[in-house]
Amino acid sequence: WVAASLTKKRLTLARFSGDSAAPLATKFDVIVVGGGHAGTEAAAAAARCGSRTLLLTHRVDTIGQMSCNPSFGGIGKGHLMREVDALDGLCSRICDQSGVHYKVLNRRKGPAVWGLRAQIDRKLYKQNMQKEILNTPLLTVQEGAVEDLILTEPEPEYTGKCRVSGVVLADGSTVHAESVVLTTGTFLRGVIVIGLEMHPAGRLGDQPSVGLAHTLEKLGFVVGRLKTGTPPRIAKESINFSILNKQTPDNPSIPFSFISETVWIKPEDQLPCYLTHTNPKVDEIVLENLHLNSHIKETTRGPRYCPSIESKVLRFPNRLHQVWLEPEGMDSDLIYPQGLSVTLPAELQEKMITCIKGLEKAKMIQPGYGVQYDYLDPRQITPSLETHLVQRLFFAGQINGTTGYEEAAAQGVIAGINASLRVKRKPPFVVSRTEGYIGVLIDDLTTLGTNEPYRMFTSRAEFRLSLRPDNADSRLTFRGYKEVGCVSQQRYERASWMKSSLEEGISVLKSIEFSSSKWKKLIPEASISIGKSLPLRALDVLKYEEVDMKLLATAVPAPLKKYITCRELAERLKIEDWGC
Ligand code: FAD
């Protein structure tokens, strides 16, 4: 299974991961199964923590594949990405190198709920992710389908009926490890559905994972069934964009990662998105053809917050639903119609699309489809993502009942860190609800479980005013560096510089003091409403909505100019509540 089945292209990729001529070792510290968004983060995190790690996945050329939407981030999801980044995870940096349209959502609301989001070039994301993964020290990447687990006697000091010590591949070969992380996404007994047709598959073009599903069930894990779906893809040249609402990206673009100065592409070179809507004709096609739509008839639960067009028509009849037309990449001829996830037979999907404004002549290149899959009740895992039943076995990503790349990545980084810590017999690394959205996500899953695909929202976080995207580094980077060693020296130094610059900036802002009448003259733009002769510090003036660091530095240049040379520093001085 080592390399025999690899195509020439895949061999080239495989060669990046260490010496491909050397036989594959049969013992690792950590094995991660699955090269999706959870698996890539888990494997890279375990390796960053110093564990010899093996990433086993069906196909190297699908590592980093975005199965559904060509976008990352959003409200709540962008928060998770910042936290993954604060622990030196990959997805934020890769998005800064692969986006085609960067926009911060919710800008009109407070900074606690700003949502960093970007349309991503699928091809570029995959390329950049594969390059990163295949060049990670201590990480070996191999193709293979894991069918079974190797189990041994449990360690008496821990709970659990047995301990995992490796995996069995489809050809019967075995690889041993101290810890194993399963990140199999929608693949466990996956079945894809279009109309009345159903085929076993993890996603379009990929085999399902059946043996492993049986193993987990036999071990006594409680298994549930969920479903999700994806929209059709449309030929770009067949759409009449000229009659639709255009959405342009932000200028300047705000990067996802704390260590990216900027993103790879200038705002003026980025691609627009367009907005259109469904109409009563769409409802009619959906309602008249429910009998041809197995996915809708299934009683399994789908994603409530990313519903199919059928669910929207059934739940909210006679409404016009938004359809965002999103680019799939810089050189891609495809458009992704977000909001139009559908499992009608292909010919009816095409008929439905052409009823929509701007899509009258649209050519469907690939039909939408649904996928139904097994997930494991996440109450069977601890806050470190290790299972209660099997020692040293970790689950992360969609296997735990979540939906979304960001939710998967967040669990992946935690599972990878803890799989490595377990090998070293060190205490687990747990993020609490007060420290991060990652904590909220894992706490919700492990204590409440879920019976529908779980997605992150800011409303789930009780402490959302302090868990802002801008300060994820101060919440997690120092812990990641000092407690587990998953953070690079470069990132640690950057976070330390930011921390000391903020402290210094605050004391300078506290030390600048004028009467309010002088401030009114210096900054006429601000409606400073305090007694004329009362003294007012620059720190207090900065709290006025109209005032930002740039304006303050124009009024009092000498001490403040240096704090506006870094956009992020200037913004954080303004956002944070620095008390008295
Ligand atoms: P995945 O990204 O699915 O990766 C799983 C990986 O594991 C794959 O590389 C696979 O090859 C590998 N693998 C599986 N079994 C084995 C095995 N036995 N041996 C070796 N390798 C194995 N999310 C949303 O937020 N909104 C949506 O609307 C949405 N719609 C979706 C529609 C479809 C059709 C699909 C497939 C997914 C959709 N998603 C959606 C979900 C999103 O793609 C996932 O949440 C995310 O990719 C999960 O990441 P993951 O790492 O857990 O799994």
UniProtKB/TrEMBL annotation:
Its cofactor is FAD. Transmembrane segments: none annotated. Residues 29-426 form the MnmG N-terminal domain. Pfam families: GIDA, GIDA_C_1st. Keywords: FAD, Flavoprotein. The keyword Cytoplasm does not apply. The keyword Flavoprotein applies. Residues 489-576 form the tRNA uridine 5-carboxymethylaminomethyl modification enzyme C-terminal N-terninal subdomain domain. InterPro entries: FAD/NAD-bd_sf, GIDA_C_N, MnmG, MnmG-rel, MnmG-rel_CS, MnmG_N. Belongs to the MnmG family. This is Protein MTO1 homolog, mitochondrial. The gene is PATJ.
